[in-house]
Amino acid sequence: MLDRLRDLTQRAYLRHLRREIEDVPTHVAIIQDGNRRYARERGDDAPDGHRAGAATTERVLDWCADLGVAELTLYAFSTENFERPDDELVPLFDLLEDKLRDFADADRVHEQGVRVRAIGDVDRLPERVRDAVAYAERRTADNDRFTLNVALAYGGRTELLDAATAIARDVDAGDLDPSDVDVETVEDRLYDRPVRDVDLIVRTGGDERTSNFLPWHANGNEAAVYFCAPYWPEFSEVEFLRAIRTYQSREESWRRARAERAVALVRAVAEVEIAEAHAVARRLRDRLPLDADALGAALPGDAQRRTEAEDDPAAGGAGDASASSPGDRDAEPESAD
């Protein structure tokens, strides 16, 4: 009974979250953390956690397709992962090889138009994994509705360092003028980069850091970030929708800020334009025998009133006298307290 009630509550909450989602990110990047801790807490080995995480990956692809996300990047294997013991690396490489080949042959992958691309220093991977990467990329090359980037042997600082080294090498060889170095120059020397800048980074497992993941494409784009406690194998659709909602809230805040800046800019420009019109009117009045009434009618409202006030010294004087009349002095407060 309790399980059924929990299930009903979960489904109701999912419907609530889906109704709230109006603005969907184009590109989501996920740091899949917590596979080993998930396995360890259940008395299993690390490879068991990685296999459980692979099942979550397939579910996330379906959630992206349902919402209309166009690109997904998964941090599958970092350069730091090479430091793990062989008894963990060998099963992990086996899993990567199997999943890449299975995914490339899956009917639903081709029905959904998923294209697989690997980013990272793929040459550092074992040959069998490199072959599986090439197979998956080749089998899905013609799909164009959804892009799945798999970050393998990837390190953000290494990527930027390699790009900087390549630029320095080209400059030293005389193939590139330093003054020609721009954003496109750097991007051309990054790893086989994602199609789009990253809109949202999600990290599971409880750590609140982005681990140098896609620093050029995410931090440069000021991507929204969502950290959550569940390990990657436990990552649910509820958490995914909460992440999307975080992105949506950030976008709404940005839109409000941009609108407020636009209004302030328009007001500032309008004030300048009116002041300039007023100055031009004074110069014309001094130099040309214009009809004052006609000139005033041609000016914006505030400028017209200022011109009329300046043309009528008596009115200005009356205003001064009125401002210092006894009645007004009596109306002022006795102190500033």
Plain-language structure description:
- This protein has 337 residues and is of the alpha/beta class.
- It folds into two domains: 24-235, Decaprenyl diphosphate synthase-like (Undecaprenyl pyrophosphate synthetase), CATH 3.40.1180.10; 259-314, no CATH class.
- The chain is built from 14 helices and six strands.
- It has helices at 2-20, 35-41, 46-67, 86-105, 107-111, 127-139, 156-172, 183-187, 215-219, 237-287, 292-298, 301-311, 313-323, 326-331, and strands spanning 27-31, 71-78, 114-119, 146-154, 200-203, 224-227.
- It has a six-stranded parallel beta sheet with strand order 3-4-2-1-5-6, with helices on both faces.
- Strand 3 (114-119), helix 6 and strand 4 (146-154) form a beta-alpha-beta unit.
- Helix 3 packs parallel to helix 4 and helix 11 runs antiparallel to helix 12 (301-311).
- The N and C termini lie far apart (67 Å).
